[in-house]
Every structure is written in structure tokens, then in C-alpha cells.
Amino acid sequence: MSSALLSLCRLSIALPLLAVLPACTSQMADPMALSAMKHGRVLLVHDQAQFQALMTSVRPGDRLVLADGVWRDFRVDFFAEGQEGAPITLAAQTPGKVILSGRSSLRLAGSHLVVTGLVFRDGYTPTGEVIAFRGEKGAVATQSRVTETVIDGYNRPSRQESDHWVALYGSDNRFDHNHLVGKTNQGATLVVVREPRYGLDNRHRIDHNYFGTRPSLGSNGGETIRVGTSHQSRSNSGTVVEYNYFERCDGEVEIISNKSGGNIYRGNVFVESAGALTLRHGNGNLVEDNVFLGNGKPHTGGIRVINRDQTIRNNYMEGLAGRSFASAIAVLNGVPGGPINRYDPVVNASITRNSIVNAASIELAAGADQERSAPPTNSRFTQNLIVGAEGAEIFRVLDDVAGIAFEGNVQTPVQKPALAVPGITRHPVELARAPNGLLYPVDPALSGIGVRRDLQPVAKEDVGVSWYAKDAAPIGFGSGRTLEVPPGDGTLSAAIAKADAGDVLLLRQGLYRVDEVLAVSKPLWLRGDGEIRFTRPSLFRVEEGGSLRLTGVTINGADAPDATGNAVIRTADGMGRNYEVRLENSVFTGLDVNKAFHVLAAGKGTLAGFIQVDGSTFTNITGTVLKLDAETDDLGLYNAESVEITRSSFSDVTGGVLSLYRGGKDESTFGPRLDFTGNRVTRAGTGQQAPSLRLHGVQAIRITGNRFTDSGMVSVVRTVGEPVITIQDNEFTGTPKP
Ligand code: CA
What we know:
Blueprint: H1 3-14, H2 31-39, E1 42-45, H3 48-55, E2 63-66, E3 69-72, E4 75-81, E5 88-92, E6 98-102, E7 105-111, E8 113-116, E9 118-123, E10 129-132, E11 141-142, E12 145-147, E13 150-152, E14 164-168, E15 174-176, E16 179-181, E17 190-192, E18 205-207, E19 210-211, E20 225-227, E21 240-242, E22 245-247, E23 254-259, E24 264-266, E25 269-271, E26 275-281, E27 286-288, E28 291-293, E29 300-305, E30 311-313, E31 316-318, E32 329-332, E33 350-352, E34 355-357, E35 362-366, E36 379-382, E37 385-387, E38 395-397, E39 404-407, E40 409-411, E41 424-426, E42 431-433, E43 439-441, E44 482-485, E45 488-489, H4 491-498, E46 504-507, E47 511-514, E48 518-520, E49 523-528, E50 531-534, E51 538-542, E52 547-551, E53 554-556, E54 567-571, E55 579-584, E56 587-591, E57 598-601, E58 608-614, E59 617-621, E60 626-628, E61 642-646, E62 649-653, E63 658-661, E64 673-677, E65 680-684, E66 693-696, E67 700-704, E68 707-709, E69 714-717, E70 724-728, E71 731-733
Parallel strand pairs: 1-2, 2-5, 3-6, 4-7, 5-8, 6-9, 7-10, 7-11, 8-12, 9-13, 10-14, 12-15, 13-16, 14-17, 15-18, 16-19, 17-20, 18-21, 19-22, 20-23, 21-24, 22-25, 23-26, 24-27, 25-28, 26-29, 27-30, 28-31, 29-32, 30-33, 31-34, 32-35, 33-36, 34-37, 35-38, 36-39, 37-40, 40-41, 44-46, 45-47, ...
Antiparallel strand pairs: 42-43
This protein binds calcium ion.
The site of calcium ion has 6 residues, from strand 23.
């Protein structure tokens, strides 16, 4: 654009309302935009009343410009009819400087509408959707576009309250170059809603978006994208999801839940995302040119294949640690003649020219059980490259796979092959990293095996917007200042009130008395060798955004009130964000003024991403050290994703060391998991119905190298899935064996 034109554009938005000027767009080279210039106006909007007034007279080619600033509680109803070549645009005055906060939302209905440059944050939608391509009374948007828009942490306060951030209705809409990060509450981040009255052939395009961190939800409903629902899944949507970047999208087992036919998933990059692109319902989908990079993170998966006529080709997978439904490739068993919301058998799947490098698992006939009894048929697995380390077999075959034809696959040697078929040749393969960042065989004879040489993964800087940082790393313990806190009455309370996120509070030897419940609403780290005593029923209350790390401190419950159910650390009920607690080299004692005095008691509707106990001592406790069992509705919810207890000593703990509960049959989540290693447990779990470890529905359990003496049993109850349980090299004295 010429500098004269540029200054005209700048001038236009400084003029009063209804100044009529040629429309300027950020993409002047676009012929569509040039055409709009001929008859459109640029209308600068300062407040909600002006916007509503303008919407009654807006014409094709017009460009409504929202003035920079924070717009609170703005329900943007963008209902209008543009024309091909003359769309009606709603834009930020400066991209990224128009903030929609509080209870704001956006609805589009009509056709040829464009929205660009907005940021949603510091609030949550007053409806069920932040951005919806629909209006009122069944009106929808067609041939419309939302681009360069950000939704950042725009969450309902309770994680169990559901909404969608983006809902595509209508047809032929585009959602591109947007940045969506930090959804923590129930409900898919983006959904394609298909309704017969608008035609089920939607043809939406979802491309070049940045899908940033979505932490584990701890229940179903944590998908990043869902296309359709099971009811209409046997018809085609024609949606294209391409060149998007998914980073740490860990919401649940399905990163993408495809529930319709005729869709294309192409050229997307998945980085350290726990879960899989899941072809849950619908036939005839194409999954090609995608790149999955797990970097060894637990539960990182690839593609899960279900239903008929699916094509999986030229996908690259490296460092995926997921197993079972989150395998690099999982081909499921189906339910013969099952209802539409169950698993249709795999028929006519083509899985070809994929590279699977250093992955943990490929599962065939996955999920086989009494109900899922139909193995894949009429399917092909060809020219795939499978490179692993140390001779470990990554194929796992759970039922008859005679219905899969293997041809031209190459695998590095394994000690005990799970598949004895001629279509897999095993020999060493040397790999070299190509300029595109992917590993390829050095041997030119293998050029037809695995992914194409010219696969070009979409770069992080080419998705989303350039004006909003993608690396908003969470604030960690110790990233802030170090504040010295002298011993005394109330000194710790005063220091915590002043501390910022990431600060370290350094305690000195001596006694710290606390007469109030200390609210922890940011990551805080208490270090040092002071002793803390407290007079309220709790010492710490972890609230929204809070996390707590204690290193080297002694906590004595002797001054706590003589009442049942005290806890050193308690969480608020119903937190949106996951929290973390770490207890290192610390001592907890004298928690015995009354019954059921716990160390950590999690509230309902909360999820700890990580709880770590290391090198700590727990003695004379009437409650449970870690009480993580508030989710008792058996809906598949739970209180902690990962619990690690190592090198610690527990003695005279009436309520037991740990109660970790995950009920229900839902298969959408990975956790909880427990590592319990190198501990001494003495006279723990001695109360009525109080095992030393109570593990209900825990999905991964490792209990090794511990010594249990005169303690309650280790109770393990399986409820769902295929839990991985290792209990070995422990000593049980005066303690029932598990
Ligand atoms: Ca799901």
C-alpha cells in the first residue's frame, strides 16, 4: 500500500462517527478488499449504542471499526448481509488493542461478514459461546470469516460449567489465523455444529490457527476441536482443518473429535499434546501431512481410527509416549451392529506412508472387549516406516488382524515381533534430520517408505496473529523475588499478602504464628527451616490461580482448633485452573488435636495437575496426608492428575497416606496416576476403613521400594480402562499384602 493511502486509512479512523471514506483493510492487495473500497464506508465506533445504531444501516462494503480500548460487557450482535466482493467488516482500530472483557460475546448472522483483530479476555461469555456463527431464531452465518482474533483464558469460574469458545454454524465459513489459549472449563474449544435444516454439508475451513495450552480437564468435554455430533455423523460435513498448530492441548483423550464424514485434516502440527486426533464417528475422512511431536511427554498420541473408508497418509510422528487410545496409531475394534453413538467397526481403512519414529505404541484392534468385538476388515497398512529404539516392539495386537493387509512396511529390528506378516520387513534404518526438521532414512532405497520428503510442517510464527505472544509460559515457583520473612506473630500473613506470583518467601529458624487462613491465589514457594503453627482450621487455602511449594519447613498442628476435619492445606471448591502442590524436605507433625486432621484436602471441582511429596516426614496425624477423593459422583472426574510420593516417611497416620478416587466408566481421560517409591509407612491407615493407600480407578500405579510396617492394606480398585499397575520390591511387615 502506498504511504499516501496508508495515511488516509489512519486519518479515516480519527474522524467522527459516520465519516464516509473509502474502506481500508489490512490486506489492500486482496482484490476483494479493493473492490470493497469502491463503495464502502469506514465507520469508527466509540460505544455500544453507536454500534447498535450503525447496525441498522450498514451496507455491503462497509467497515465498522471499534475504537481501541476495553469494551466491557459488550454482546456484539453482528447481523448483516454483505455481498460477494463487498463484505461487511468489523475490525479493531488497532489489531490487539480492542479488548472485549467482562461478559462479552460475538455472534455473526447473515452472509459475507468479516471480523478481525479482537481480543477476548478477563471474563467469560454470558451465553454458551464466545464466538458463534449464528444469530437469533435459527439465523446463521454463511460465507463469513473470523480472523486474527484472540481468546485468552476467557473461562467460566467453575470448571464444570460448560461453554464453547467458537461455534461454527451455517456453511462455508472460515475461521483462520486466530489465537486460542488457556481454556480450562468444560466444553470443546471449537465446535462445528451441524443441523439438517441448514444442510449438513458445511464446508467450513479452519486454518492457520494457534491452539495454545489447554490443560487436562479431568473429564470428558476437553476436546480442542469437535466436528459434528454422533447423531448426524453418518453424513458428510466437508470441513477442512488445515495448517493449525496445537501446542500442549491436553484437555482429554480426543484433541480433535471428528464426528462426521468427508472431512480433511491436513498439514496440522501437534506439539506435546496429550491425546489423539480421533476419527470417533463418520466415514470417508482424510488425515494427511500432519506432524505430531510428543517429545516423550506422557499420553502424547497420534491418530485413532474408527469407522469406514478412512485414509491416513503421509503423517509424521516422533517421540509419542502415548499408549492405548493415545497410541501413535490406534485402529479400533468396533461394536457389530451397535448404536450410532458407540464404535462402528473399521472397514476399508488405508494407512500408508506414515513415519513413526521413537513412539511407544501402535495398537491394532485396540479397545477389543466383549462389546467391541469386531476387528478391522478390508484395510491396508502399507509403506509405513517404524523406527524404534533398543529392540522394543511397539505393535500391540489385541484381536484378529487378518482383515488388515500389510505391505511394504519397514520396521527396525525388535526382539519379540507382535506381528508375523510378510508385509513388514525388519532391518536397521539410519535416519538423518532434514531441513524441514523431520527424520528421514539415509538409504535412498527407502525413499518410498514413510512420509514424503517435501512435507513442510506449518511454522508456529505462521499461525495465529503476530501481535499476541504465543509463549505465555505459566509463572513457576521461584520465578519472582526472594522475600525474607522474620519469625513472629503474623509475619508470614503479612508477607504472603505482599508477595507476587512466583515469589519465594524465605523463612528463618524460629516460630511463625498464623492466626488467619492464608489465601494462596498465585504460585508461592516457602523455603527455610522455620516452624509454622496456626490457630484456624486451615493454614493455607489454595484459590484460583494458586499453587504452593514448601521446602524445608516444619508445620505443627498443635495450636489448631479442637474440631474434626482440620487441614493444613485446603483448596477452594470449584476452581477453573489446575493447581500444583509440592512438599519437599518438610515435616508435618502434631495434626492430632481432634479426628480427621488432614495435610491436604482437595475440594470438589478442583484438579491438581501435579502433587509432589519428596523427602518429607509425616507423624502423628489423625486424618489422611493427601485426601484427593472429593469427586464421588462416579462421572469420571477426579482431584489429581499426577501424584508423586518419594523418599518420605509416614508414621502414626490414622487416616492413611493417600486417598485417590476416580469413579465411573468414562474413557475420556488419562489420569490419575501415582508414583509411590522409596517410602517408609509405619502404623498408617489404622483407622476403620482406612487403608494406607486407597486407590480407586487410578490409571497408572507404580508402588516400588517401600517398607510398610503395621499398617493398613494397599487397596487398589479397578473401574475402567486398562490400568497399568506395578507393585514390586516392597516389604510388608504386619501389613496385609495388596
Ligand atoms: Ca471426548
